[in-house]
Amino acid sequence: MMTYLFIFIAKIFEVSLMTLRTVLITRGEKVYGSIIGFFEVAIWLYLVNKVLVGINEDPIRMVIYALGFACGNYLGSVIEEKLALGLLTISVIASEVDGNNLAEQLRKDNIGVTKIKGEGMHENKTILMVHAKRRRKNEIVKLIENTHMNAVISISDTKTIYGGYGIKK
Asked: Region 50-79: what's the mean pLDDT?
């Protein structure tokens, strides 16, 4: 029973590390990703040995390993979401008046905003672009929503930002 528990917990830990490593490397943190990769592979090699030796006599090990893999994917995603590593770009499209007011409100809250003039189907628009750290996403979206202005918000991951206001790497 302890072997099953060990396999399950170790696999969750290993896959969670894999998720974090992947995110770090795609966000440009190669050194941290490589260090995590070392521990990830060491755990994987040890686990594979534990699972494969005697698998014909005890095939439940394979099921426990697969369950640990599934749970590790979920847990790794939750951890990555909580860490909120990286940068994002929030684009907001609003009427010209609402966009100008929203830009002022965001700037009062120390959020860098770039305004761009745009044309909608029926009226002129203001497009706001905000670059921010991912951990501020919910705060910024809530600020925009709390103004009760009619706005379209889109959010995309951004790998690198050079210069600008309010973001230091």
From this structure: 93
Torsion of CA 58, 64, 69, 72, to 10 degrees: -150
Whole-angstrom distance, CA of residue 154 vs CA of residue 160: 18
Q: What pLDDT was estimated at residue 114?
A: 94
At 110 the three-state DSSP class reads coil
pTM: 0.71
Identity of residue 168: K
CA 90, CA 102: separation in Å to the nearest integer? 13
Nearest to 120 by CA among 141, 144, 151: 151
Q: Which of 77, 59, 60 is nearest to 12 (CA)?
A: 77
Please, what sign has the CA dihedral across residues 48, 50, 55, 58? negative
* Adjacent-strand bridge partners of 153: 92
Sign of the CA dihedral running 26, 30, 32, 37:
positive
Structure tokens of 138?
Answer: 């919910």
121 phi and psi, to 5 degrees? Answer: -65, -40
Q: 91 Cβ partners below 8 Å, 6+ apart?
A: 127, 128, 129, 130, 153, 154, 155, 156
φ, ψ of residue 113 to 5 degrees: the values are -135, 135
